[in-house]
Amino acid sequence: MRAHNRFMRFAILACLAAALLFGASAPLAKILLGSMGPLTLAGLLYLGAALAVAPFSRRGGSAELRRDPGQRGRLLAIVLLGGVLGPVFLLLGLRAAPAASVSLWLNGEIVATVALAWAFFHDHVGRRAIAAAALILIAGILLALPDGHASARAGLFVAIACLCWGMDNNLTSVVSGFTPAQTTLVKGTIAGVANLLLGVVVEHRLPAPVSIATALALGAVAYGLSIMLYITGAQQLGASRAQLLFATGPFLGMVLSWGLLHEPVEPIQLAATPLMALGLSLLLTGRHEHDHVHARVAHTHRHQHDDGHHMHTGPGHPTSGWHTHAHVHEATAHAHPHVPDLHHRHGHPG
Q1: CB within 10 Å: which end of the chain, N or C, has fewer?
Q2: What confidence tier does 350 reach under pLDDT thresholds 50, 70, 90?
Q3: For residue 11, which of 180, 184, 221 has the smallest C-alpha distance?
């Protein structure tokens, strides 16, 4: 139990750190949109992410699992949905609505992640999760009311981005063979190049060198480091719970929008904030425990050997501390509090 709690604390801190870094990206990206188009900016942000994680991606993972067509397919979907489509729709939304509102709208990613996790990824979603998703959805609708048609159009763009990232989050939490840094490197490189080329063709302008350097730096921190931390947490917590912690980021984005962009503090934003906060608290205070069976599985991810699941030994395998390598879990059955991480994808209990 003590080891389990330590794993949970580490995963929670990783997701919170990822949220804080990403939360700053919406208002700062809105500033950069004044000097370049959304496709160009999306490309530079992801190229910055790739540059940031490249030094950490040389080692780890499993070459055998990386050759698996299923794992490659998941990674390709992560790149297309989360790296190409999601950022473009977000930046289109930022063009048409206040950054503070867009920052809160990004919590729609939670609803998409939880719904997709329950429907397709065997993630247990109880009444608390349903109530939380409903509160977040209501808050998002409230934010879209004041500005009428323009706000609704921006909200639709952000909703599409959230749907793309919801699927991305679920696929990220189950992809194996790649370390978080390697996943981020592939995602950042392919998505960055694709969006940047589209930007050059469609937007017909290149930003100034200072703007390019600023966008790369923002991408390195708010996307690169953030994505790597998020993947680390999601593999331990499951997609829906990791996303709930990640939801704290948009609130930071809203506050920064007020301070950096001098956007007015709208009463509707203040009204929507406690609804989203209540939804977050409902999910974080849930508890899930039952008898369950683990089938034999081979994968790779960051782990320790004192959590009740990683009892393997072998040549070159460390016996203590955090490390990453390919390993095999033999079939077993037991009961303990758990979340739908890489080891608990056993479906919905009765």
Answers
A1: C
A2: very low
A3: 180
Residue 221's contacts (CB-CB under 8 Å, 6 or more residues apart) are 21, 52
Residue-averaged pLDDT of the chain: 76
* Residue 234, token pair as written in the block: 């999601």
Report, as an integer, the average pLDDT of 185-200: 90
Provide DSSP, 211-233. Answer: HHHHHHHHIIIIIIIHHHHHHHH
For residue 124, the model assigns a pLDDT of 65
Q: Which three-class secondary structure state does DSSP give residue 300?
A: strand
Which sequence spans correspond to the domains of the chain?
A: 2-290
- Number of C-beta neighbours around residue 260 at 10 A: 14
Three-point CA angle 126, 132, 133, nearest 5°: 95
How sure is the predictor about 250, in pLDDT bands with cuts at 50, 70 and 90?
A: low
How far is the C-alpha of 79 from the C-alpha of 172, rounded, in Å?
10
